[in-house]
Design a protein that fits this description.
The chain is an alpha/beta fold. The protein has 17 helices and 16 strands.
Length: 413
């Protein structure tokens, strides 16, 4: 009798822990986390616990600030993945050093249920604080390993004396730390982290979803003249993203590019909503015919909008690894951005775009002007994006998860 083929190895059950994750209430929050981890979910069982900050009087604040902590449903099913949104106590602006502990306590009942059901072998936390520190506590309480992904907020948190010690404690306790950029890795190494403990696994890009579309058709759909010079920025409408820094350069740029148009794609985020201030700036500078606010758009809509533009620009104050750069490049756009975080790691060659010092408005304006005049090799820009597709990065993540959970052929549920 022929022997039966061996059973495939059982995969570890991963629970993603992230306080920034999309929901029906905030569909644009943390898309870069879902994009990465839902690809992991194709290889192994995965659930998401996305804690939501809450305190008793936040409804009063929302009367004056409608976008403040809009909340989330208790549960959603997204692409076949279970996503829970438990609340945790968090006072806005106060006692932030307690957020990690409160987040851990708020999520403990759900994680305990998942472990009892055999659905928790490893906690995968995103952002070192409060999520990573919370994972370090949950790991001890539930006796499961955990990983942390550094994503960019670490730059701000590690400079805060109230938070730095907890952030570093969580990182030191993690079985493995991933970083979306080498700049974040170096930030932690400078504070004593072990080099072998942190591996850079950047984000990738979906080169099927993001691909060049017919330029004329895309412009026609947005009522953009074919002769216009079109800039585009995509991101949450918050000061950190720097839309206002681009807008302030437009009057000077229009002297040489009279048909200049700036498309602003995005809406409010967990950091707030800066759109009223941006609209006021546009009005004061006499740019109402030059700047278009297109609002938040779904990922499937972005390729057509990007394909209508000539140059992608983001004068950001801080980034870990900006997925949107690769998305723009996949559509053939060069990128103009600031030399912060991991930006130079993405825009790493002259043929991909121009990186300028942060805070240098003259340099930013000159770079935008040059980018509109330079004959870019858009096919080469697209090839670079293809070299940064998701497959290899997700495979590396999965190898780590299997190693850490010890599940190469064994049942750890």
């Amino acid at each position: 009798m022929a022997s039966l083929p061996p059973s495939p190895p059982k995969q570890p059950h991963i629970v993603v822990l992230s306080s920034l994750f999309p929901s029906s209430v905030q569909p644009g929050a943390g898309l870069f986390i879902r994009e990465r981890m839902f690809r992991v979910a194709r290889e192994m069982p995965l659930a998401v616990v996305a804690p939501t900050p809450w305190f008793p009087l936040q409804g009063l604040i929302r009367r004056g600030k409608p976008g403040f902590r809009p909340g989330a449903p208790n549960y959603e099913k997204q692409a076949g993945v279970d996503v829970w949104y438990p609340r945790f106590l968090s006072f806005p602006g106060l006692f932030k050093q307690l957020d990690g502990l409160m987040l851990a306590l708020g999520t403990l009942p759900r994680l305990r249920q998942l472990k009892k059901a055999g659905r928790l072998d490893l906690i995968d936390a995103h952002f070192a604080f409060p999520d990573g520190y919370a994972a370090s506590l949950l790991s001890r309480w539930l006796k499961v390993p955990f990983t942390i992904t550094l994503r960019g907020t670490e730059t701000r948190h590690i400079a805060d004396r109230r938070l730095a010690a907890r952030l570093l404690r969580g990182v030191s306790r993690a079985t493995q730390v991933f970083s979306v950029s080498d700049s974040l890795r170096q930030l932690l190494l400078a504070r004593g982290a072990r080099p072998e403990h942190i591996e850079v696994i950047g984000n990738g890009v979906d080169t099927v979803r993001f691909a060049p579309r017919d330029r004329a058709a895309c412009r026609a759909a947005l009522a953009i003249p074919d002769s216009a010079h079109v800039l585009i920025s995509v991101g949450g409408l918050v000061p950190r993203k720097g839309f206002h820094r681009v807008i302030e350069r437009l009057p000077q740029l229009r002297t040489t590019c009279p048909e200049l148009l700036f498309l602003v794609v995005g809406g409010s985020s967990a950091e707030g909503n800066y759109r009223p201030e941006l609209e006021r700036q546009v009005e004061e500078l006499g740019l109402t015919d030059c700047v278009r606010f297109l609002g938040p758009r779904q990922p499937d809509e972005l390729a057509a909008i990007l394909s209508a533009a000539d140059v992608f620009v983001l004068a950001t104050a801080n980034e870990g690894w900006a997925n949107v750069f690769l998305e723009a490049m996949a559509c053939g756009l060069p990128v103009v951005t600031t030399d912060v975080g991991g930006n130079r790691e993405v825009v790493c060659r002259d043929e991909l775009g121009i990186v300028v010092p942060f805070g240098d408005g003259e340099a930013l304006g000159q770079a935008i002007k040059e980018s509109l005049q330079r004959p870019w090799d858009r096919a080469a820009i697209r090839r670079y994006a293809e070299d940064n597709a998701w497959d290899e990065r997700v495979a590396r993540l999965c190898r780590h998860f299997r190693r850490i959970a010890g599940s190469t052929g064994e049942d750890n549920g």
